[in-house]
Design a protein that fits this description.
By secondary structure, the protein is of the alpha/beta class. The chain is 40% helix and 27% strand. The structure holds heptadecanoic acid. The site of heptadecanoic acid (X90) has 23 residues, from strand 5, strand 8 and helix 10.
Length: 273
């Protein structure tokens, strides 16, 4: 059996046949498992009124291991190893699983990114496996595809990223100011790389388009996710479609994990080129 798996940081529109391994968001009082039962709005409301610290935890080795059970050909995609232990856990689980299942094959892909870029990678894996291609060929093609995808994002607050040591304080301080957004990408190490500061969310959209052009986007796939900002996401989708007629654009809501870190108002987008 072939199994596609990602951690829950992935955007999760209905993509049939994919299993998700949850990350967990917590405070000292409550914890939120990022699965299909999570009410992201309720979590964000609670966190907005909660005064103390909040944290996250990546899936455990066991979490990955139980997702592998029963499969012979496994493709697993993780959030960036530059900011999370999810990839290391998935790799440790791979070793354990292969000891017990000598004939199994497992490819673990470190997205060096998250959200919509994981979705693009999953869609590519689905496309290739449904053609019936051999495991090694799928793995090689996916690794190649990952060199032709990119993440961009526009965030209104870096509070949770900075509280949890995932972004440098100087970058975080620049965004605390009301009405200032940061536009950024994922660095080659899979960390936050700011590109520009923008006043107002409308100004961020042409900035994103400009960086898509610079990256060499010429009208392929675009996946957009938002954190409580459907209007901005739709406006961005329309702008992409008018700039590149014929591009394949889809919008969804961010996962619980990305909603926690990207925070209300954010949009994230990934595209291939
Ligand atoms: O606890 C954990 O292991 C999870 C830690 C995740 C930390 C970063 C999540 C970022 C979410 C923010 C904007 C996109 C940044 C992407 C840079 C690679 C989304």
């Amino acid at each position: 059996m072939i199994q596609l798996i990602a951690d829950s940081s992935s955007d999760r529109p209905d993509l049939e046949g994919v299993k998700y391994v949850p990350l967990i968001i917590s405070t000292d009082e409550r914890s939120f498992v990022d699965n299909e039962h999570l009410d992201v709005d309720e979590m964000l409301d609670y966190l907005a009124s909660y005064k103390g610290r909040s944290y996250t935890a990546c899936p455990s080795v066991d979490g990955w291991l139980s997702a592998y059970q029963g499969a012979e050909e496994i493709y697993a995609v993780t959030i960036t190893s530059g900011l999370s232990g999810s990839y290391n856990a998935a790799m440790a689980a791979r070793e354990l699983y292969l000891q017990e299942h000598k004939d199994a094959k497992i490819a673990v892909f470190d997205s060096l990114s998250t959200g919509p870029e994981i979705l693009l990678i999953l869609e590519k894996i689905k496309e290739l496996t449904s053609q019936g291609l051999p495991f090694e060929q799928v793995e090689a093609s996916v690794r190649k595809y990952m060199c032709q995808t990119r993440l961009l994002y526009s965030l209104q607050s870096l509070h949770n990223l900075s509280q949890n040591g995932r972004v440098n304080k100087v970058v975080a301080a620049a965004v605390g100011v009301l009405g200032i957004r940061i536009v950024g990408t994922a660095s080659v190490e899979g960390t936050l790389a700011p590109l520009a500061k923008c006043r107002g969310d409308r100004k961020a959209l042409p900035e994103l388009i400009e960086h898509m052009k610079q990256a060499g986007f010429h009208g392929g796939k675009v996946r957009i996710a938002h954190v409580r900002n459907p209007l901005l996401a739709d406006r961005f989708a329309d702008l992409v479609k008018t700039t590149w007629p014929g591009s394949d654009v889809a919008v969804s809501r961010s996962s619980g994990l990305c909603s926690y870190y990207a925070e209300s108002g954010a949009i994230l987008t990934a595209f291939d080129f």
